[in-house]
Amino acid sequence: EDKKMVDKKYCMSSYMAFRFIEDDSKNFYPGLHHQNIKPIPDAQRILVQSADDIGRRIAEQVEDFRNMKKGLLLSGGMDSAIVASYLPGADAYTFRFLGGEFQKEELARAEYYAEHYGLKLHYVDISWDTVTQYLEPVMKAKCAPVHSIEPQIYQAALQAKTDGIEIMFVGESSDLIFGGMDQLLSQDWTFDGFMNRYIFTRPEDVLIEPESMQYVFERYRINDDKIDFLRFMDDIFSIESSSSYLNAFNAVGMNYYDPYAKLKMSAPLDLTRIRRGESKYLIRELFSKRYPDIKTPDKIPMPRPVDIYFKDWKGPSRYEFRKDIDMSKFTGNQKWQMYCLEKFLDIHEPIA
After folding, report:
1. What's the confidence (pLDDT) of residue 98?
2. What is the C-alpha to C-alpha distance for residues 316 and 319, in angstroms, rounded to an integer?
3. Distance (Å, rounded) from C-alpha 106 to C-alpha 128?
4. Residue 332 above 80 pLDDT?
5. Given a cut of 50, is residue 1 above it in pLDDT?
6. Does the pLDDT of residue 303 top 80, yes or no?
7. Distance CA 84, CA 121 (A)
8. For a FRET experiment, which of 90, 175, 182, 317 has its CA 20 to 30 Å from that of 259?
9. Burial code of 287-296, b = ≥16 C-beta within 10 A, e = fewer?
10. Is the Cβ–Cβ distance between 206 and 16 less than 8 Å?
11. In 3D, which of 152, 144, 195, 169 has the Cα closest to residue 37?
């Protein structure tokens, strides 16, 4: 236990930069211990080389759960739509924001997928009130501030659990494995260029006592000023994104399964195709086989109307944050990080 160091300054900077605490041995406060997800080792992953391979491997994995009542987090995107096509009769859960006024075309596509394969569609109605209601349980479970998708995943898991769902399917890892992160794959980065592009919010822009997170990038430095950005994303980004699902489902006490997480491409990503505008080319091909009658949708991240939520937010006021933060310079997601970190600190170190 004494290996667990308390290093609040480090943890704040790591959360701002990466949206998670990169060093597993450091924690915000005594008695807290965050735990990052351990990605599936390469030796246990299934190699796929074509769209048909991917489809076959998803179908095989779904078969393992044949006697369980199945649910699926269904968005308007390709990844969950493909999984839906192997789950006829399952219950699908689709996020709906602001009474359905936000991203209507996403909702319409989810409805189409569910109808096409006979899934029973449920809406998970999310508002700022439900986000704040479920924020504390996910932060307590994680022992750290969280990603902005976690309260809503928690809400969906709770709803599914009430419906008697025994296993929830998600399509989360597909972007990372099949080349969906097209912005980050768009060029062969210089070391500094990638570091500046990747960091979510620069700790020095918002914290009084920032700590540099450059050491994480240094592990991936090659030939002086280049970086092995593919390996960086496999290691660092995969932890950040998958931990959000793991934590939210664990906090509800519900099992979930991502059939993409077990897969690995047998050939290197074709960066030329991705840079020409064909991100996730194998997934696109599989989507058009499973849904021959509709156009392949553009990639959209999991919806969350953070820009609307934080439009008039004045920014954090605790002593750990700078007093001169110009809130107009930050995106909704960056404002969420400041808000969430402040709420987390308030729980553990209330200021009278």
Report:
1. 73
2. 9
3. 20
4. yes
5. no
6. no
7. 11
8. 182
9. beebbeeeee
10. yes
11. 144
β-bridge mates for residue 222, sequence order: 226
At 240 the three-state DSSP class reads helix
Nearest to 91 by CA among 67, 59, 112, 117: 117
pLDDT in tens, 64-108: 999 999 999 999 889 999 999 999 999 999 999 877 667 777 888
Check: CB of residue 34 under 8 Å from CB of residue 21: yes
- Whole-number mean pLDDT of the chain? 92
Specify the 3-state DSSP secondary structure of 48.
strand
Which run of H or E residues covers position 70?
A: strand 70-73
Question: Whole-angstrom Cα distance, residue 342 to residue 345?
Answer: 5
C-alpha neighbours within 13 Å on the C-beta side of residue 187: 8
Tokens 């809406």 sit on residue: 123
**What gap in Å lies between CA 130 and CA 152, rounded to an integer?**
8
Residue at token pair 């898991």: 157
Q: Which tokens sit at 234? A: 């496999």
Task: Dump pLDDT digits (tens) for 230-282.
Answer: 889 888 888 888 888 999 999 999 999 999 999 999 999 999 999 998 889 99
pTM, two decimals, is 0.92
CA 74 to chain centre: 14
Angle at 207 between CA 7 and CA 133, to 5 degrees: 80
In the chain, what is the greatest distance between 2 CA atoms, to the nearest angstrom?
60
Name the H helices within the chain.
Answer: 8-18, 51-63, 78-84, 104-116, 128-142, 150-162, 174-178, 191-198, 203-206, 214-218, 229-232, 238-252, 271-275, 281-290, 306-309, 332-348
**48-87 CB burial, b ≥16 within 10 A, e <16:** beebebbbebbeebbeebeeeebbbbbbbbbbbbbbbbbb
SS3 93: strand
Bridge-based pairing of strands 167-169 and 70-73 is parallel
Region 108-137: what's the mean pLDDT?
A: 95
